[in-house]
Amino acid sequence: MSKQAAEVAKRRTFAIIAHPDAGKTTITERLLLMGQAISIAGTVKSRKSDRHATSDWMAMEQQRGISITTSVMQFPYRKHMINLLDTPGHEDFSEDTYRTLTAVDSALMMIDGGKGVEPRTIALMNVCRMRDTPIISFINKMDRDIRDPIELLDEIEEVLGLKAAPITWPIGCYREFKGVYHLTEDVIYVYSSGHGHERTDAKIIKHLDSDEARAHIGDLYDDFLEELELVQGACHAFEHDEFLQGQMTPVFFGTALGNFGVDQVLDAFVDWAPAPQPRMALEREVLPSEETFSGFVFKIQANMDPRHRDRIAFMRVCSGKYEQGMKMRHARINKDIRIADALTFFSSDRERLEEAYAGDIIGLHNHGTIQIGDTFTEGEELSFTGVPHFAPELFRRVRLSDPLRAKQLRQGLQELAEEGATQVFFPQRNNDIILGAIGVLQFDVVASRLKEEYKVECIYESINVWSARWIECDDKKKLQEFKDKAHENLSIDGGGHLTYLAPTRVNLSIMEERWPDIKFLAARESH
Ligand code: G4P
Question: Residue ranges of the Tr-type G domain (predicted)?
Fold first, then answer.
């Protein structure tokens, strides 16, 4: 195997999908502990934006110099290289999460054992399903009173439409939690509380049918055997192929807080999850083993270092090898640029990067030319597909307090739109600027950032827009006809795409009916 093929085979790139409070932050810390990226759990802080009020959230965001280092985490584990991509928990920032999920090869689904499958998990799972992303499941908080595990598996099957194959099975829960039984290895991993912050190997009892196991499980032993029989009869056995096709999920039980069961999950990623996969471009499929470099940008984030106004474009490498100082072709604008200082995200520090392979994430300094979805190559004309933009659901007209700052406002909004913080629309019939968002919190964040970063104070006004649709049409004549007729409601978005802003749902239906040759797209892929 060539060095490159070996490097690619070593990589596992995944994200965690979870409803807020299921334990994503906690397990992230434990995973980093496992990869020796941190020495004691409890050091990854300030990522709990989910549960805070808007004002807190913004104050925290302003300290993004701290939180950003955990936005992509790379660490070695069992001679493999793990890339863990963080996703914002708050649903108002779901677009960012959706796009991050396009950059992974697999995902870890965390479920709070007391609550089961929750709404945000369902939404994120639906995004994973678009690409049939393989999912490994972890049912968390076994040290608490949880719901019947069989019921939880049923819920995964029914609500998420995934076949659930238990790999471990819990012995008791809450104060009676005694560990998990590994269904195929026939061993018990013994739980002991109080080791949540350390790397410890769980004590193992070989064979369920042993005196040691009987003594450990105690009064629960007979009930446990009965339950196990039921589980083995009723549940699916794990099939690796079905997992890789995104149809079956292996399920583990444990407690992130107690750092129990987390190593089994990480082992499952190494043993079962796919190495970096091929990616589709408009022109062709690109294999990770190809020698020439390619990658796409799935996220842009500003102000990583509060002292500089730099923006970082997060790029997933799809093929070849990145080396410091290499030249890359920015395919959309057809320009070669030399990349001298890309960032890597090894351990918990930002470091200068030496090399990166398919599956890795690198951070490019962006001075305003890079947009979400952009493709970079070593000269070939390629456009990777599959990075989605969703039509906003909320709209505001922006007005300036100080009219003399119009230029700064435009620049600020353009940049925030490129970053994906909001969407911006410039109507064709007047000079208004309209902002679109998926979650209302986005507007507050934009106003606050305009003030902080661009010294622009703005006011929002309500506006009569129900939804936006991107317009596409292969027939140039028809398109022109449509542009003339629909002029009043047409605008150009921050990326230069023609967009129809529908005042009402009824209006949109009428237009769709009247213009059958025009595509009104609720989501578009960047390319
Ligand atoms: P999130 O990022 O998914 O939102 O969840 P996070 O890890 O912040 O966990 C949410 C709460 O659940 C935290 O408690 C955390 O300590 C707790 N938790 C996570 N895993 C487990 C577990 O396995 N068992 C138990 N019993 N609790 C768990 P908190 O009180 O809200 O925060 P904190 O004060 O402990 O930080």
Answer: 9-277
